[in-house]
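Quick illustration, no need to memorize.
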Amino acid sequence: MILYSFRRCPYAMRARMALLVSGVSFEIREIVLRDKPAEMIAASPKATVPVLVLADGQVIDESIDIMRWALGRNDPEDWLAGDDAALIATFDDQFKHHLDRYKYADRHGADPIEHRLAGLAMLSELEARLAPDGNLRREARSLADIAIFPFVRQFASVDRPWFDAQAIPQVQRWLAQHIASPLFERAMIRLKPWAPGDAPVIWP
């Protein structure tokens, strides 16, 4: 199998983490967004990462589908028991909308403060979910946590002093916990961009 990925993309982050925890072996190809390889575009004409090309040629080019596929093959931490399709979809849609207009306000012609506050309101809802168990669905991490936290990480990084000053201590603790995890560290290893003819880089 081949995974086309980009280290800093939140969608690619969560796909890599699910593949790694599943133990499924795959070739990883780090791409450069301004110079996407023809092989990736041929596999998935929408040309966005991540793209997983299975051994039989089947292509999965939605990150949440890659996560669920990998965990369907092997789920040693029982992440699928902590799936929350509605919550994940809300963050993929609404939170990502506000995140983009907060982080890239000029690009979208948006008021960044308006979208920052809208994002914070959604994080306040997460705060209530996190208080009882430490993670979103249970004490241990699960699919919902790994699907959502890369976007919260990106939101926090726009203005870290502001984020750290907000009254969302459970969210801040949860985010720090996932950023510090050995799994995230493995998923964020720096790779040189792939080019045709390179020796395969096999994970895990």
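The chain has ten helices and five strands.
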